[in-house]
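Re: that chain you flagged

S.,

Sorry for the slow reply, it's been a week of failed gels. I finally had a moment to sit down with the sequence you sent. For the record, here it is as I used it:
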Amino acid sequence: MRPEAKGRADRRRASALEPGRGQEAGAKAASAAGPAWRRLHPATPYLRSWGVILAIIAVGLFNMAENLADALDAAGRLGWHWLALGLAAVLAVAFAWAFCWWRRARFRLAEGVLELVTGVVFRQRRTVRLDRVEAVDTVRPLVPRLMGLVKLRVESAGGSDSAVELAYLKVSDAARWRREILQAAASARQAAEAPGPGETEAAVTGAGMAGDAAGDAIWDGAGDGAGDGAAAGPAGGAAVRERADRTAAKAFEGAAGDQTASGIGLSSAGAPGPPKSVETQVGELLGDSDARAPELFAVPTARVLASMALSIWVWLAVAAGVAAVAMLIGGELDIAAGLLPVVFGAGGVIWGRLMSDFGFAAKQTSRGLTLSHGLTTRVSQTIANGRVLAVTLSQGPLWRRFGWWRAQMLVAGYGADSEQKQSVLVPVADRETVRRAIWAVAPALAQPGAWELVTSAMDSRGAAPGFTGEPARARLFDPFAWKREAFALTEEMLVLRGGWLMRTATVLHHGRIQGIELSQGPWDRRRDLASVCLHLPSGPVSAVIPHLGGADAWALVEGEAARLNAAMRAALAARDQPAHDQPAAHAAADAQESVEQRSPRAPDSACLPRFRW
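Prediction finished late last night. Pasting the structure tokens below so you have them in one place:
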């Protein structure tokens, strides 16, 4: 080694041996590399694929059952040892692939985002912004639960496929990561909502009052206390514009950010309170106050079983099964085989309802409504405050004697691709339990006269105070349900009723409607009738009012269109005008206007477009 090279090597070794120099270099390298990646549980790939493996085995056995003798002869000619070796080779390849999948799958909490990377040949990278996280639900299917594993489902304010699932983790690791994700989400919200260095206290107060007024105007009545203020001087122009855009987007989307999520609590007078620390917010989300929260309601198991017995699907399955047995005894094998899909389909619906509705209970926490349900797959989900867009009630003919109703909700971020169990507010309950459940997600219905209007929608037929229904000339199109189809308007809500055999009552806020559509066919025009469709994000709630009188339909469409246009003008004015030039009183007045929950998803496919606003 040359003398100069040896000198450089000696200097590097001496530098590495100096106190703190090695640790500092390691810290810098770790900081440059970013947060460490974490792995899922090693049993994850096998738990994710066991259903597919069982399905393949079932299909193989079913095909072999038809020609069992031929299959045994072929296996004997080939040799059972070769068959065993082939099966072992297939299992070895499957286990090797699962091991590679597990080695490549990883997740981490990076700067402001949660990242999940999966895939061996085709790599997939899922990222969710922490300031958009709405809830972290826990899902425990039967087999993973027996192994002490949990799936974390991170719900964000996005489309129907915006959730990120961390499956599977040990119970202790899942609890720790749930806390860390919520803590990071609270920190991200606090950083996003904190006023910049150039913002004045007066501008922050005015914007906070505007957010409080906007919260009073929306569905859940909870104010958004985020202090999106303005800059004091011209040096903060870019920051001012960004915060003004964020404030306008909040007013336009009608997002009901609760005080826990916003990081700034507003008093009843509208003045901003002291900022909450991250520890305080996480304590409110996961602390003892939530653990000690009283149970809002619980559905008894006996009632769930009785509702299953009184379901039309049970009677359909029983009737099809009896008919299939009768045809089988009579020798009509083809007819019996044709009835089997009906039996299996109805039985599948019944089994799915039982698995998801078993042990249904709810608690009202500081974060929102926490629902726990499921038999084989135990689910604990939190519906954040302000995320419920609409609620629909349904009652079958066999439930009317007992006064039972089923309540489903349309939750922002849970689209039609989400599982059905995520949209159930109450599987089966009496009227008092339904009232408590709806008030938990829609406090606006607790106002005087609001619940009476919903009760009237559940029971009334024909002319009722406040309702506008189909005229008598629409009887030709709706011979059974024309007396039930009607709507009622208040300053905040739109209440729909409908159904003849299956009664329905739907409640939604004006600010949650995405668009209005009026359709009129040739026969409708001859009788001066028109149908109105209210566009909502795809989900279990449909808002269609068929065959209204022409004048009533146009009045409804023009009223809702005016509300939407006013909300759009207010949002555009707030976006285009600098926040420090807009007085607080004017900002509050604009924020009190109706707001619209925007979504890029397509409207309900049941609506046929003709006139559009």
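What I noticed first: Confidence is low (pLDDT under 50) at residues 13-32, 197-289, 416-420, 579-613.

Talk soon,
D.
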